[in-house]
Amino acid sequence: MASAAMGDASFSSSASDCANGTKKKKNRFKRGKNCAAFDCNNTCYVVIDGKEVLSKITMFSVPKKVLKDPKLINRWCTLIKRRHNCDGFRMNTNTVICEKHFREADVARKSNHGLTLQKPRLKEGAEPVLHEWNKPKPRRASPKKRASPKKRCIVQTTQARKDMESTLNETSPSTMEAAMEPTPATQMCETSIETPTVSEQTNLSPVSVQTRSTFVSVGTQTSVDEAPVHMSDHDYTFGINDSHCIESLNEYISMLEAKLQNCTQECRKLKKIVQDLSDEVTEFERKSFSIFSLKDDDAAVRFYTGMPNFTSFMALFEYLEPKAMKLQYWRGTGNGSNNKAYQRPGRRKPGPIRKCNLLDEFFLVMVRLKVGLFTKDLAIRFGISESTVSRVFTTWINFLSHEIPLLFPTPSQARVRHFMPPQFKYPTTRIILDCTEIFVQVPSAMKAQSETWSNYKHHNTWKVLVGVSPNGQVTFVSELWGGRVTDKKLL
Question: What whole-number distance in Å separates Cα of residue 435 and Cα of residue 53?
Answer without folding.
Answer: 97
